[in-house]
Amino acid sequence: MPLTPFHVAIPVRHLEESRQFYADVLDCEEGRSSDEWVDFNLYGHQLVIHHDPNIGETNTLTLHHNAVDAKSVPVPHIGVVLEMEDWQRLANRLKERGVVFVIEPYIRFVGEPGEQATMFFLDPTGNALEFKSFKDIDAQLFAT
Question: What sequence ranges are listed for the domain VOC (predicted)?
Answer without folding.
Answer: 4-134
